[in-house]
Amino acid sequence: MRSVAYGPLPADTTEDVRALGAGAAPRVAVLPVGSFEQHGPYLPLATDTLVACAVAGEIAGAYPVHLLPPVTIACSHEHAAWPGTVSISSVTLHAVVRDIAASLRRSGVEALVVVNGHGGNYVLGNVVQEASARGERMALFPAPEDWETACGRAGVVTSLLTDMHAGEIETSILLHAHPDVVRPGYESADFVADDRRHLLTTGMSAYTDSGVIGRPSLGSADKGKDILASLADSFGAYFSLLTEGAESAGGERG
């Protein structure tokens, strides 16, 4: 296992990256993408970024990847009713990720995994689809199936539908990775709103006054630890796909 991060930021030097890349082709970079949006009164605005960084850091401790610093502001328009939330357009986020991937390729890093910490970053799926269609090596992680596996392994009680925002999963990960940022109040903040069919039209404020949708009271540091460990295990299939199977997949695509 490697120690590659200082808090949410990579601590590698340029020589560390040179050594990591020596003889390892194709190389894989990992880009955490979060957001800066409300997460109720007890989790910070940077929650999604901290979650994405925790997942990416766990991956970087288990696989020979090039860990990148996070994209900290993304598409949080549904949270605009709450103070502190800041967003960029989907077009901008698309361009940022595409530019990062292009810069990496120029430096010899052919594959990029985008670790998404915010469900509202829908455009990241399009970024990966379009890159793959161009023959580039890119993946989006974790998939819903990876979260399902992780939740089962960790004993998470709340379903992914119910655990929409600032709930059991996010609270657990932060209680494990950054307990100092979790404020009192999560123990009594549970709120469920499973029918959110008009969310994209009305925003979150139509469904919750507190900004919370989920059951944070069920969160624990042990669950957070197990969630991250499971996601690191699930990442193995992505790493193999982008390295061992990359050339054959490219040949079939052509």
From TrEMBL:
PANTHER family tied to this protein: 2-AMINO-5-FORMYLAMINO-6-RIBOSYLAMINOPYRIMIDIN-4(3H)-ONE 5'-MONOPHOSPHATE DEFORMYLASE, 3-DEHYDRO-SCYLLO-INOSOSE HYDROLASE
Keywords in alphabetical order: Hydrolase, Metal-binding, Zinc
A molecular-function term among this protein's GO annotations: metal ion binding
Any GO BP: riboflavin biosynthetic process
Family matches, as SUPFAM superfamilies: Creatininase (SSF102215)
Name under which the protein is recorded: Creatininase family protein
Pfam families: Creatininase
Species annotation: Streptomyces lasalocidi
Keyword Zinc applies: yes
Family indicated by similarity: Belongs to the creatininase superfamily.
Keyword Membrane included in the entry's annotation: no
Cofactor(s) needed for function: Zn(2+)
